[in-house]
Design goal:
By secondary structure, the chain is of the alpha/beta class. It folds into two domains: 190 residues, Rossmann fold (3-Layer(aba) Sandwich), CATH 3.40.50; 123 residues, Rossmann fold (3-Layer(aba) Sandwich). The chain contains nine helices and 15 strands. Helix 3 crosses helix 4 and helix 5 runs parallel beside helix 9. The structure holds flavin-adenine dinucleotide. The site of flavin-adenine dinucleotide (FAD) has 26 residues, from helix 6, helix 7, strand 14 and helix 9.
């Protein structure tokens, strides 16, 4: 068996969700004496190869894609190229496996569960004719099956999924595993990006969505803002608190509709799925659609004036009261502590 961490490489630093995937790959592999590979695809693949070896990947496969800097303004998805590359790596690497060794006849492909992965995981599964288990919070290998835990019914239920096959694909929810270094000597294989054909896509430039300056899936502290904050005074209090505790702001659907914040900050069933160290829920009732996006947060603190609000069923700590009284007091206390 081998475990392959598929890593999209398009940023200066390797994302912490990618380090988590490498860490989980190493953990699954060590419990079944398997081999760990990192499949690095994108404009910064070469740059991140040594980091992948530092986190336990003994085989590195690299597809460094050129970005045409003269064609600014064209946003072409990296996703399609990743689907092609995964398919190509599968073909190349299958030839290297020992056909006489039955322990080498299974491949587990692990992805992080980002917006990019959500776009391509199904396509990769279809291309490889392999089962796909998205958004898992834990997984193991019993010698024949991949056994994964994943939240279902908007996180109401944790389901255990068993998949078998020569290739199995999983995406791992970000923020759940502490990245752990496990340096190894690595073998590097470089692959040449195929010439694009007229009907194919050419990677011209990677453009971040406008206004989406924050990657919530990577944030350790998130302040979730709900309908309980409903004016500029409240917004200022939230901004002050965020700067004091170095938190990133996220929103419930109430603010997706109010227009007070950018819609890219939505957390929940129709927004981002996050699992920060701390999720501070301010004036959020705790609808199942919101909870679906933040229930795996390590610590949840809720402030709400309604003691019956469902968010308190999930929270580790709760404060019942008016945010417009509690936030100034909290900010004052934090400022005094800092001073
Ligand atoms: C198909 C579908 C998909 C959806 N997807 C999402 C999604 O991805 N994300 C999402 O968030 N929602 C989603 N929703 C909407 C969801 O059902 C809820 O309507 C929404 O989450 C409510 O947001 P809220 O908790 O901020 O507002 P409310 O439910 O109105 O709650 C506001 C809370 O603030 C408290 N409050 C008010 N004033 C104060 C105060 N001064 N001090 C303290 N507390 C106060 C109230 O007691 C209340 O509990 C979806 C709905 C559907 C149908």
């Amino acid at each position: 068996m081998r475990v392959c961490a598929v890593i999209p490489c398009f940023q200066e630093e390797l994302r912490s969700s990618s380090l988590e995937v490498l860490t989980k790959s190493a953990a699954v592999a060590s419990s079944s004496s398997a081999h760990v590979e990192a499949w690095l695809v994108g404009p910064t693949a070469e740059k991140h190869s040594s980091k992948a070896a530092q986190y336990g990947a003994a085989t590195l496969r690299l597809m460094e894609l050129e970005v045409d800097s003269e064609a600014k303004g064209v946003n072409v998805s990296l996703g399609r190229r990743i689907v092609d590359t995964v398919d190509e790596f599968m073909t190349h690497s299958a030839a290297e496996l020992d056909a006489n060794d039955p322990s080498e006849d299974s491949t587990l492909l692990l992805f992080d569960n980002t917006e990019l992965t959500k776009d391509i995981l199904g396509a990769c599964g279809a291309r490889l004719d392999a089962p796909v288990i998205p958004d898992v919070v834990d997984l193991s290998w019993d010698g024949h099956h991949c056994i994964a835990q994943r939240p279902t019914y908007a996180s109401k239920v944790m389901s255990e999924v068993h998949a078998e096959g020569s290739v199995i694909l999983c995406s791992i929810r970000a923020g759940l595993f502490e990245p752990i270094e496990k340096p190894v000597e690595a073998t590097l294989h470089r692959y040449k990006a195929p010439e694009s054909d007229l009907l194919g896509q050419v990677l011209k430039e990677l453009v971040a969505p406008e206004g989406d300056t924050v990657d919530l899936t990577e944030a350790p502290i998130i302040i979730g803002v709900g309908r309980g904050i409903n004016d500029e005074t409240g917004k200022d209090l939230v901004a002050k608190l965020a700067s004091l505790i170095r938190g990133e702001i996220a929103i419930s659907r109430a603010h997706f509709e109010s227009g007070m914040y950018s819609h890219t900050l939505l957390v929940g069933q129709s927004g981002k799925v996050v699992a920060p160290r701390l999720y501070l829920a301010l004036g959020i009732s705790g609808s199942i659609q919101h909870v679906a996006g933040m229930s795996e947060s390590h610590t949840i603190i809720a402030i709400n004036k309604d003691p019956e609000a469902p968010i308190f069923d999930l929270a580790d700590l709760g404060i019942v009261g008016d945010l417009y009284q509690i936030l100034p007091a909290l900010i004052h206390a934090l400022e005094s502590t800092k001073a």
